[in-house]
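Sequence and structure are kept together here, with a separate record for every protein. A complete record is shown below as an example:
=====
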Amino acid sequence: MNNDKMRAIMSRINSQEKKAALSIAAMVALRIYGLFLIMPVFSVYAEKLPSATPILIGLAVGVYGLTQAILQVPMGLLSDFWGRKKVLAVGLTMFLLGSILAALAKDIHWIIIGRCVQGMGAIASTGMAYIADVSRPEQRGKMMGIVGGSIGLAFMLSFISGPLLAQWLSISGLFWLTAGLACLALFLLFLTIEEPRQKVNKSFSVNDMLMVIKQKELLLLDMFIFLLHASMTAIFVVLPLILVHQLQLPTQQHWQFYLPILLCSLAIMIPMIIQQEKGQRHVSYMLVAMLFLSLTILSLIWAVANILILAVLMTLYFGLFNFLEAAMPAMLSKRADEAYRGAAMGVFSSLEFLGAFVGGLMAGVLMQWQKTDVFLFLFIMLFGCTLLAFRVFRKSN
């Protein structure tokens, strides 16, 4: 490596890059916080809504993922031709409208419609494209890290504050709060984001998509992110009901359950990330994490009668989930050739959101019989996929 390249890598992120990263991170975090704010409490409150059934409750939780999955790639392509800022504005406006629809809803059907419209604001790929437009290649990882950190923080805050806010505001109040957050994100967009002056437009390539489908390792990463988010959504359709009905923990006290779990999970996630990078053993760490994640979900079947055991297992689940959430995109960027890396990330993002939709719907169907059936079904899918991945990666290395 020559001295110029070394100096470029060691250089610091400049003011323009920092402003862009922080602006996108703030907008994404506000949106993620609003989307997940209802997750830890919705299934409990939704039981009292007119026309509510287990399937419709699961659908209401996860349906945003369906429209996200469908529109992620088209919105990203539209931003290539129409402009990043305009597409970001359209996406945030759709998120605002969906939040208002859900806030005004009088039954479960209108909440489903509102969540569906919320998901139509599929701007994740456009936000990442904007960062790529305004950053130097050697600083892009730092900028993506800032955005990723904001997502993780928003996710944690939503689970801690959701139960408390629901007690004061009710579910409709949470949606009104989300609408306010969407307005704040739009304000930040117009105040801090400028359309990139120079960017490389790249049209959709069928060959790129075929390469993504042909490479087994990329397909397995897509399967993993699908199952990871399916598990998260499914668990949080069922878990609030278990806490209320089986463990007699009132909804307004759920934050006391989630806060220590999320904080302790950092003691699992952070050392795993550090050790993985030190040893450069990305594949083995990812496979072991998936294996333990599947076994943790299986163990939840027997933990629903004891809140302390449930808390320990959920700490392990969140630690492994957050590690994989960070590790898999990094691994995909290394495994996908630069020529079709954009297409690979598009498919990866779409399957991430599709997993959220399928997980919510699946949980709604299965918990009509027994809530723990959800955990068994998730274990079978995750464990089977992990065994397949062990074989594929062992042959390729």
Observations:
- The CA atoms of residues 35 and 258 lie 17 Å apart.
- Residues 137-192 form the longest helix (56 residues).
- The chain is about 85% helix and 0% strand.
